[in-house]
Automatic annotation (TrEMBL):
One of its GO terms (molecular function) is uroporphyrinogen decarboxylase activity. The gene is hemE. Pfam families: URO-D. Its main location: cytoplasm. Its EC number is 4.1.1.37. The record marks D76 as: Transition state stabilizer. Homodimer. PANTHER family: METHYLTETRAHYDROFOLATE:HOMOCYSTEINE METHYLTRANSFERASE RELATED, UROPORPHYRINOGEN DECARBOXYLASE. This is Uroporphyrinogen decarboxylase. It is found in: Cytoplasm. Gene3D superfamilies: 3.20.20.210. It is an enzyme of class 4 (lyase).
Amino acid sequence: MDFKNDLLLRAARGENIERYPVWLMRQAGRILPEYRAVRNSLSGFKELVETPALAAEVTIQPVDHLDVDAAIIFSDILVIPEAMGLEYQLIEKVGPRFEKTIKSEADLVKHGQTDFDVEDRLGYVKEAIEITKKELNGRVPLIGFAGAPWTIFCYMIDGGGSKTFSESRKMLYQNPTLAHELLNRITEVTIRYLKMQIKAGADLVQVFDSWAGILGNNQYNEFGLKYINKIADAINEVPVTLFAKGAYAALPNLANSNCNTLGLDWNMSVADVRKIVGENKTLQGNLDPCALYSSHSEIEQLTNNMLDSFKSKRHIVNLGHGVYPDIDPEKVKTFIKTVKNYEIKN
Ligand code: CP3
């Protein structure tokens, strides 16, 4: 594939770049009126996710309207539990809800299925990627993604969002065998799913471990890192990004994982992380998503300060977590323009 803009892939591989690439986690949907127009014409979020032509359309919207250097396929991390036999609903203003959760071996057999062809149950993602790639026609790379096993586990055990995910963490103490069994199953399906996305045309894949930060370091090594490492080891076709939100203590271990890029949240300075991680990984991030609530001139200043702290070319610019739904798209554009106008000094 000849790209018109492959900055993202070159930055991920540690190759030379003329300027830093920039995209936003959760850039599709959420902030764009063009997304809401499509979304409101449908029965719900899942219909959009499962209709490949529309999923492709909203995937490309941020490339057209925000001028980002990458597209990320419009889907959700929760399609994996659903494919494994645990259906979810997205309740307006509440978030995802699973009617059933996994509490026992019997639940695991029923709702932790692995014995299926991912193309059968998740073929709509494959099709959405194929359509998106065709329509993008090399303008920018397309990012595929999945949730990390630990984060998916949290939803399958707690049954929805939670501040503490205490049901999930309880299982690590009361029934670690069952926990490992489920984590292994999620990992196996996720690897097959990411390979399907790559075959369909994903140019880079990101694994979102959004709830990495709620575990102590020993537990994260055992129940989190072990499984994202398995995924990173299994994917060699395209660059891999691991985003383990809040897992600072795990950074020295993450630095040894088989990925190209580590995603960072906004709690640590990039300069400090670079000292821990060394030069062999690309770092992605990490402006505080709330910085986009400040004025246009402050956004420019904060973004330039962050860019000044980068001492190498191994960077992909992003926020430290997904863009918040009520951010003014004009503020996002200021962030993106500032990155694009920045001259790399080293
Ligand atoms: O733009 C993109 O990044 C692509 C699409 C994408 C969505 N979800 C679409 C979505 C991606 C990459 C995700 C990942 C995701 N989903 C994560 C990991 C990233 C993170 O934020 O930590 C998690 C934890 C989820 C689970 C999830 N899905 C929640 C908690 C919610 C409800 C809250 C919200 O609005 O995000 C969803 C629904 C969801 N996923 C929406 C979108 C655009 C909102 C649906 C709507 O009402 O239109």
